[in-house]
Amino acid sequence: MSEKIYVVGIGPGSREGMTLEAQQVLHRADVIVGYPVYLALLGEEYADKKMLSTPMRREEERCRMAFEEAHKGNRVALVCSGDAGVYGMASLMYSIAGEYPAAEVEIICGVTAALSGAARLGAPLTHDFAVISLSDLLTPWELIEKRLRAAATADFAMAIYNPASHKRPEHLKRACDILLETIDGNRVCGYVENIGRQGEKSVLLRLDELRNRELNMFTTVFIGNSSTAIINGKMITKRGYHIE
Amino acid sequence: MSEKIYVVGIGPGSREGMTLEAQQVLHRADVIVGYPVYLALLGEEYADKKMLSTPMRREEERCRMAFEEAHKGNRVALVCSGDAGVYGMASLMYSIAGEYPAAEVEIICGVTAALSGAARLGAPLTHDFAVISLSDLLTPWELIEKRLRAAATADFAMAIYNPASHKRPEHLKRACDILLETIDGNRVCGYVENIGRQGEKSVLLRLDELRNRELNMFTTVFIGNSSTAIINGKMITKRGYHIE
Fold first, then answer.
1. Across the interface, do A92 and B239 touch by the CB < 8 Å criterion?
2. Could you state, in chain order, the average pLDDT of each consecutive group of 10 residues for chain B (244 residues)?
């Protein structure tokens, strides 16, 4: 018998932001595995489920929990905030899956913060865009710098994840300085804190102002492209460029 | 009284791929406006709604329909496939909104093809990625080339929208040739046709094989980064890089 495990992106956090498929999978599960904050977001609706969690950075252990619960005969869902793929657990689950030959992994996608945050600010990601994390936990900082420079030079709009952490509060400032090598200081930018959760806050500002903000790790940052403008208080990237 | 219009991303196409919020908004609407294919995807569930559409490339007219229906006192939802923002109608709606002072536009985000397609192939977009459209209808081809080169040089994974059209069947081949300037021909790539719809088809292949495929406009293409591998038949991008 196949031991099926669903890796489920639950979207920004509210029940309404989840897809119907994600809800159906969670309702059918016996066990839900996840980071404690995300399990808490699921709320009363799933109070009858067995909930298992591990602390931050213990992701591999969390994945193994999921496989082991499935091996016991449970229907298992491993939850991620946003999408299951984008900086999510899908990759790690597939990498470990080989050790559990009876296991079958299925990904249930969800709305990642680039999309949910963009909807709050207006339409910053209408055209080509790059998604970049400023976390150097698993990525050399030099590569992050290279990607910021490449995205700026090629006029991509950007969604920036993990703009700050307790250990590295200065990452956003360093990233903005790199962007400012190519992009003018008055470029339209924005950020959204706690998307879809209590205390949600959206801010529009210039790139040179963004440089001096101290943001927390629950924030997603948006950098406009050269066509992005503020229209009636919204951050709007045009659908295209003027073609002669 | 404010004339509220929701711009709703309906996800890949099936009812289950929509967020709960999108469903609630559509159920409360009197009028649903959209491209005919997307209205058809909504199916029987919304058979009691007034449905209005315009043909392809008549997007501005479609937006004005939405504003005018709202002005008549109707609750209006304008639907987009995938997300409402990513190559969607949110930007155009906000740009026109100034002409309808009583109107208020709200965006309901959805799962864009980069995410839903990725979930079918495995986890190709785990790490930083770029989303690029090969349509040169509103974008100079030179800029598309520049973005492809930038993304390849900085080792972004990529999701490529509009890889082909009837008028420009050779766009994908030209794009692959640009990527092949920097990336080895054996780079792991994949594509998904008709994501979440009838006739869905997922393919994994090498970049030099992708170059010679003729794909249709209902296909999303994925280019791995240097860490992407095929593991147990899935396209998997690692969560990070080896750091000394």
1. yes
2. 91 94 97 94 92 89 96 97 96 96 96 98 98 95 98 98 88 97 98 93 98 94 98 95 68
Strands ordered across the beta sheet of A122-123: A122-123, A234-236, A229-231
Question: What pLDDT, on the 0 to 100 scale, is given for residue B142?
Answer: 97
ipTM above 0.90, yes or no: yes
Which residue has 């993304």 as its token pair? B151
> b vs e for B86-119, b when ≥16 Cβ sit within 10 Å of the residue's Cβ?
bbbbbbbbbbbbeebeebebbbbbbbbbbbbbbb
Scanning every residue of chain B, which has its alpha carbon at the shortest distance from the alpha carbon of A151? B150
Closest in B132, B153, B236 to A94, CB measured: B236
Does the beta-carbon distance from B86 to A125 stay under 8 Å? Answer: yes
Q: What is the pLDDT of residues A90-147, one digit of tens each?
A: 999 999 999 999 999 999 999 999 999 999 999 999 999 999 999 999 999 999 999 9
Q: How far apart are CA A140 and CA A145, in angstroms?
A: 9
CB contact under 8 A, B107 and A119: yes
Nearest in space to A234 (alpha carbons), one of A198, A203, A197, A199: A203
Query: Residue A33 phi/psi, 5° resolution?
Result: -110, 140
Mutate to test the interface with A, among B15, B20, B200 (most CBs of A within 10 A): B20
CA distance A198 to chain B (A): 17
The number of angstroms, rounded, from the C-alpha of B144 to the middle of its chain's C-alpha atoms is 17
Q: What angle do CA A124, A127, A131 make, to 5 degrees?
A: 70
Q: Is B166 helix (H, G, I), strand (E, B) or coil?
A: coil
Between chain A and chain B, the number of residue pairs with CB atoms below 8 A apart is 241
> Residue type for B4, please?
K
**Cβ–Cβ below 8 Å for A138 and B16:** no
Distance between B17 CA and the closest CA of chain A, angstroms: 6
Q: Give the closest residue to B34 by CA, choosing from B4, B69, B2, B71.
A: B69
